[in-house]
Amino acid sequence: MEEELESGVVKKFLYINRRAPHGTVYAHEALEVVLIGAAFEQDVSLAFIDDGVFQLKKDQDTSEINTKNFSKIFSALEMYDVEKLYVEKESLESRGLTEDDLSVDVKVIDSSEMKKLITDSEVIFNF
Amino acid sequence: MLFGILVNEGPYQHQASDSAYLFAKAAIEEGHKIFRVFFYHDGVNNGTRLATPPQDDRHIPNRWSELAKEHEIDLVLCVAAAQRRGMVDPDEMKRNKKDADNIAEKFRISGLGQLIEAGVQAERLITFGD
């Protein structure tokens, strides 16, 4: 597997997910980075904005589009010690979604709090 | 400053690889260092040695190879993304029993850990893509 870092450096990593889960591969491959990255013992947060909030939608079924239903992996993130998931309130609302539509526990924050989260992060992946 | 670079889009289709290349070149000229260039998503297609663009167009994969040769830059294609898209080096060729490899000079294929490492080690990680 991957070699682990021995530098002992811990940085604030933020993965920003802003695209719909299906239709392009970005969301799926972003999750692969999160899973591998979890082994590096960094301070990891995930943010969901814009159409990215659909990635966490409950009861996804991809059987008719022949793609992998990777949305199930979000509920396993806890086992990887990835526990800080932030969803932007405005993105949810403008898409007619509420927290009850989501498959995992998240913290809903508004856009000014999201801005602060981004500003406070050191390494940002934008998928 | 020590930079890490992430390229998320393929060559020619999208400006990302051009911008990343020009950024890397400019950074080096200004005395900065590049820790690694990591290619992800369709960005792995930048590492093919089989591209034949028209003569009056830039040769994007060769341009990366030459920059790497000149300045010892680490060019890494993500293995998972590369496998999906048919980017193959000699080791992958053997491992996955393919009849050819297609990786350009100075590129190598490795895991996503190399991207995380670039995030940790570099002072800035710059993403090029949409």
Order of helix and strand elements from N to C terminus of chain B:
EHEHEHHEHE
Full CATH superfamily name of chain B: DsrEFH-like
Sheet with the most strands, sense and barrel status of chain B: 5 strands, parallel
Oligomer: heterodimer
**Spatial strand arrangement across the major sheet of chain B:** 4-3-2-1-5
Query: Per CATH, what is the topology of chain B?
Result: Hypothetical Protein Ychn, Chain: A
Distance between the termini of chain B: 25 Å
Strand order of the largest sheet of chain A: 4-3-2-1-5
Biggest chain contact: A-B, 23 and 17 residues
Q: Give the SSE order of chain A as H and E letters.
A: EHEHEHEHE
Care to count the β-strands of chain A?
5
The major sheet of chain A is characterized as: 5 strands, parallel
What low-confidence regions of chain A span 5 or more consecutive residues with pLDDT below 50?
Answer: none
- Structural class category of chain B: alpha/beta
User: Roughly what is the average pLDDT of chain A, rounded to an integer?
Assistant: 94
Shape of chain B: globular
Strand content of chain A: 15-25%
pLDDT average of chain B, as an integer?
98
Beta strands of chain B, count = 5
Rough shape of chain A? Answer: globular
Rg of chain A, rounded, reads 15 Å
